[in-house]
Design goal:
single chain, 389 residues, alpha+beta, 2 domains, two-stranded parallel sheet, 17 helices
């Protein structure tokens, strides 16, 4: 997903869930910040490197793809952008290495979604926003894994966009370009993606790189053949997924405010809350354009009657940098960093507990603090273990 949904749509969902304008701003800022809190950013403000929730393009180009390098990549992308759906999937007739990667495939309404939401219960607004980013991405990024892998994330060149016309869906052959400086051309169904690489662990095969920005566009419907599905055709309906993501965010945030009982339920949505706005939401989600920010912003400002400021990456930096060491956790960024570390530790521990080595070892953050995800000596020891057979 992009800023239009993670920032402006999340603001709308938070306000509909009962948060006020200032609270909704803090939540949507945190949701969008997940896509920007890189090690480069953390170096600039003096924050803990363990709190990184994304990797910049230049960081990815420099990333090592040895055992530890791959585990570092996986800890970030699986924890915040491609939450694994079923770490114990009983897939048969495959080797252990393949099973480990298959079990990292992201999808909505997996057990880790509930764990993510519950981790934010009773915590800061930053934790709520971070959880909403993770939840929303399980809808946009479904069918892709947050670890470099050709055998899971690759596709064929069989791509057809399904465009609604006169009440029915017409097929249009979809094409890709590999020029990273090019822009998606929605009028001619030409999109940017990563170039094919035969190496299993190259970063070109991370997440949805092989299908470019398609998962991040709310309006698009398309059919394609993914490697994990043995190159059989599947249909991806983004408008339906994005509507479900929005309704689930509203429900989740109502739950976090104590308005939906004492247990978060999967496959539950706040359809009743969003019903009065259903046509408006459908229009925003299905309109063909690369960025829906203006439409989401206008909707949010109508809901609250207040102005939603543009996202400003520098907004909280000075507060954090000038705070005394003992008070840094009480700043806005400090609260976000703690939430990020807790989420990464929780997901990494779940992956390791399932006997899957792809994300390395993580001790419980609540017990071990930063050491919970900074076990480099243990990772070196772990590299000698054979858990792939």
């Amino acid at each position: 997903m992009q800023e239009d949904f993670h920032y402006y749509a999340t603001y709308c969902a938070a306000f509909l869930a009962g948060f006020n304008h200032e609270e909704s701003k803090a939540i949507c800022y945190s949701a969008q910040f997940v896509d920007l809190c890189s090690r480069t950013f953390l170096d600039g403000v003096g924050g803990p490197k363990e709190a990184a929730t994304t990797q910049l393009m230049l960081e990815m180009l420099d990333a090592k793809t040895d055992l530890i390098g791959l585990q570092n990549i996986t800890r970030i992308w699986a924890s915040f952008h491609f939450l694994p759906f079923d770490l114990y999937n009983p897939i048969k007739h495959r080797k252990k290495k393949y099973k480990n990667k298959y079990r990292m495939i992201c999808n909505s309404n997996g057990a880790l979604v509930a764990d993510t939401v519950n981790l934010a219960k009773g915590k800061t607004l930053q934790a709520v926003g971070l959880a909403m980013h993770v939840l929303a991405d399980t809808w946009a990024h479904k069918y892709f894994a947050g670890t470099p892998t050709l055998v899971i994330n690759n596709t064929t060149d069989y791509f057809f966009e399904l465009i609604e016309k006169d009440g029915r869906l017409e097929e249009r052959k979809l094409q890709f370009t590999h020029n990273p400086k090019a822009k998606d051309d929605i009028d001619n169904s030409i999109y940017v993606n990563t170039i094919y690489q035969y190496e299993e662990n190259t970063v070109m095969n991370l997440g949805h790189g092989r299908v470019g920005h398609l998962p991040d566009l709310s309006f698009i419907r398309y059919k394609y053949m993914p490697a994990w599905g043995n190159y059989r055709e599947i249909v991806k309906d983004n408008p339906d997924d994005y509507m479900h993501a929005f309704a689930q965010m509203v429900y989740a945030m109502r739950y976090l405010r104590g308005l939906e009982g004492d247990r978060f339920e999967l496959n539950k949505y706040a359809w009743d809350v969003i019903e009065p706005y259903k046509d408006r939401l459908k229009s925003i989600i299905e309109t063909r354009r690369l960025d829906a920010s203006e439409d989401w912003k206008a909707f949010g400002e109508e809901l609250s009657g207040a102005k939603i400021p543009a996202f400003d990456l520098s907004l909280y930096q000075e507060e954090y940098k000038t705070a005394e060491k003992e008070n840094k956790n009480n700043t806005f960024l400090g609260g976000f960093f703690l939430a990020a570390i807790a989420q990464k530790s929780m997901v990494t521990k779940a992956i390791f507990t399932s006997k899957n080595p792809l994300a390395g070892i993580a001790l419980d953050y609540n017990e071990k603090g930063l050491r919970g995800i900074k076990d480099y000596l243990k990772l070196m020891e772990y590299s000698g273990l054979d858990l792939t057979r």
